[in-house]
Amino acid sequence: MTEVLTGAQKAFYEEQGYLILENRVPVPILDRIRQEIARFTEVARGMTASDDKIDLEDSHTPDDPRIRRVKLPHTQSEVVNDLLRSDHILAPVRDLIGPDVRMQTTKLNMKSAGYGAAVEWHQDWAFYPYTNDDVLAVGVIIDDMTEANGPLMVLPGTHRGPVLDHHHNGYFAGAVDLEAEGIDMADAVPLMGPAGSISIHHGRILHGSALNTSTQDRRIIFYEMMAADAFPIFGQNTFPASLEEFDARMLCGTSTLEPRMAEVPVRIPKPLPPTSGSIYEIQKAMGKRSFEVLK
């Protein structure tokens, strides 16, 4: 028995590696999240560099604050934390990976109108491999997402293929050279929907997003999570400090001391480039870009 997904939706996710579910998040919750975004923007006013809570656009100035990411927003906002733990998010996740679910990380990516930064093609799995691949990300669409404002794009079916090379010049660059891999970006599918929709994409699916050059904001919260019996492989970029810290990430169900081992492809995301930080900074080590970058 499933909680919210149909058999057809589960089969589509297993085959294609993604889903869009419209109208999952109520309007009052979206309104509170938008108020929080306004608060974060005021926090960024006067900042001269990114810190451990807010990642700034390259075009940011203290007088004209521009945020590209709020880091771990569930630790900075009650409404973001409450939504993470609600059935709006967890019910479809349980339908896909089972009742025992653990958090990987959270992020609020902000592509503001006219300058929102691109994210190069990558697989989340390249950053954090596990013993099995019941690993996914839920995207909470805060603004109507259209082809014009830089939607998340996925290459369907790539979650069933290899983990691709995300290294450049000997360093982990967190991005894939599509041409070198023989992949055509024309095959990508944009994950679009009205505000309040959620997207779900498999941790191994290849995805990215272009600059937002439109007049509409494109802001999205990503809740990344995995089955509780998926244990981290040493070398991943968010390796837990202890078992206690790992178990503190449980969102629902029961933790375990028995990792489930699956035959999954793995590359270790090391060594990091000399200049590391968020994915935006790591991807600067990439030579060839698929998307335009901010000037």
Structural overview:
With 295 residues, the protein is of the alpha+beta class. The chain has a single domain, classed as q2cbj1_9rhob like domain (Jelly Rolls, Sandwich), CATH 2.60.120.620. The protein has eight helices and 14 strands. The strands form three sheets. Strands 1, 2, 3, 4, 6, 11, 13 and 14 form an eight-stranded antiparallel sheet that branches. A hairpin with a 2-residue loop joins β8 (167-168) and β9 (171-172). The mean pLDDT is 92.
Offer a quick outline of the entry:
The protein is α+β, with helices and mostly antiparallel strands. It has helices at 7-16, 27-44, 78-84, 87-97, 124-127, 178-181, 243-247, 279-282, and strands at 18-21, 54-56, 67-71, 101-111, 119-122, 135-141, 153-155, 167-168, 171-172, 189-190, 198-202, 206-209, 218-227, 250-252.
Please describe the topology of this protein.
Layout: H1 7-16, E1 18-21, H2 27-44, E2 54-56, E3 67-71, H3 78-84, H4 87-97, E4 101-111, E5 119-122, H5 124-127, E6 135-141, E7 153-155, E8 167-168, E9 171-172, H6 178-181, E10 189-190, E11 198-202, E12 206-209, E13 218-227, H7 243-247, E14 250-252, H8 279-282
Antiparallel strand pairs: 1-11, 2-3, 3-4, 4-13, 4-14, 5-12, 6-11, 6-13, 7-10, 7-12, 8-9
Keywords: Dioxygenase, Oxidoreductase
InterPro entries: Phytyl_CoA_dOase-like (IPR008775)
GO molecular function: dioxygenase activity
